[in-house]
């Protein structure tokens, strides 16, 4: 065996593909989706415009956007058979498992037949119906109510989600809708994050679109990846005030415990999405939200930076943003799914367009070759 060959654990710093979708951590270039800076997209566009950009490659004209929003709203109802199955998922299930199951079941009912055409339809069908699947299951298991998942065709993805969550027949507040919409823009795409890379590995075998998305959902669920926004909220809810946050975080750091929502494989000097989402969490705290939660978050940020020189990633202030809007904590990562299905779709379509099976190899460190031992001779 040759001397220990070098390899990069977790593929850190390794480039494995060419892609025209997004730039992350490129020297001197910010976070861009197909060349548009995330700061501009978050400030001036909507999630539906960004979804169109990622999936079709350009920002939509006014007419294209109107048609696209109509298309998404036409995809928000879910088949009766899927509702039956959602009703059988226990209330104790994690909402990420509900989406992974819903994706799989929809794939059996509306299969991909011709990938070149169907991939766009399925991407939009999932973006539009993931919120419906989740909230249909939620209201059935919480109160035995079978809700209609269709709202006004003019409703954005953010409005549709909040209306189905609250079911109070009222228009959700403009501040809440805008905060969710911006979070959907920020979560939409991020180069070869673990879930997107997983989707590409799956796509490279030429399997179906739903299988790629199931891979991505399962990958995103982990607390080192998308599950961090839920884990960050669980951490923050342990601190009723800033004093307990200070002592609690110092204790955790002393025990070398992970502070969820901090750190990043690529960003070593801060996540460009953080200041944007933090501003929305602050705005919510000043307009009827939870000022203590924001103050506790700020203390956690200050201490982790002071002690570890680590910065929050997008998941940290997404937690207090969603909490102040009244979104259940275990719905945080499912919202990430609704948004990142746009980025995952872009990567699946790109992988299919110039495919090569993704199959790396490992450096063998097992036993030297040895003779077989019959079982009667084994102790
Ligand atoms: C997302 O890839 C993407 O783009 C993902 C994402 C996207 O949009 O798709 O940005 C979304 O997943 C953001 C990350 C969400 N995860 C978390 O917030 C979980 C907490 N963070 C860590 O687990 C960690 O920072 C990672 C997983 C995000 C990155 O880890 P790396 O690159 O593998 O770095 P590492 O684990 O080798 O850490 C280096 C050192 C270690 O200390 P030592 O062993 O060298 O002493 O930093 C420490 C780590 O213990 N460290 C932390 C820490 N993150 C790293 N210590 C405390 N708290 C943390 N959060």
> Helicity level, as a percent range?
55-70%
Strand line-up across the major sheet: 1-2-3
Taken from the alpha-carbon principal axes, the silhouette is: globular
SS element count, helices: 16
How many beta-strand runs?
A: 3
CATH C-level of the largest domain: Mainly Alpha
Q: From the alpha-carbon coordinates, what is the Rg to the nearest angstrom?
A: 22 Å
The whole-number mean of residue pLDDT values reads 97
Query: What separation lies between the terminal Cα atoms?
Result: 29 Å
What is the CATH T-level topology of the largest domain? Answer: Citrate Synthase, domain 1
Low-confidence stretches: none
Report the structural category.
mainly alpha
- Name the ligand types: s-citryldethia Coenzyme A
Q: What's the number of structural domains?
A: 2
Pathway: Carbohydrate metabolism; tricarboxylic acid cycle; isocitrate from oxaloacetate: step 1/2
Protein name: Citrate synthase
Family: Belongs to the citrate synthase family.
GO molecular function: 2-methylcitrate synthase activity; citrate synthase activity
Report on this model:
The active site is at 264, 315. With 379 residues, the protein is an all-alpha fold. Helix content is 57%, strand content 2%. The protein has helices at residues 38-44, 47-56, 62-74, 80-87, 95-109, 115-143, 157-166, 174-187, 194-203, 209-220, 228-236, 242-254, 274-286, 291-308, 314-325, 332-353, and strands at 22-23, 32-33, 36-37. β1 and β2 (32-33) form a beta hairpin. The two termini are 29 Å apart. The model has no long low-confidence stretch (mean pLDDT 97). Bound molecules: s-citryldethia Coenzyme A.
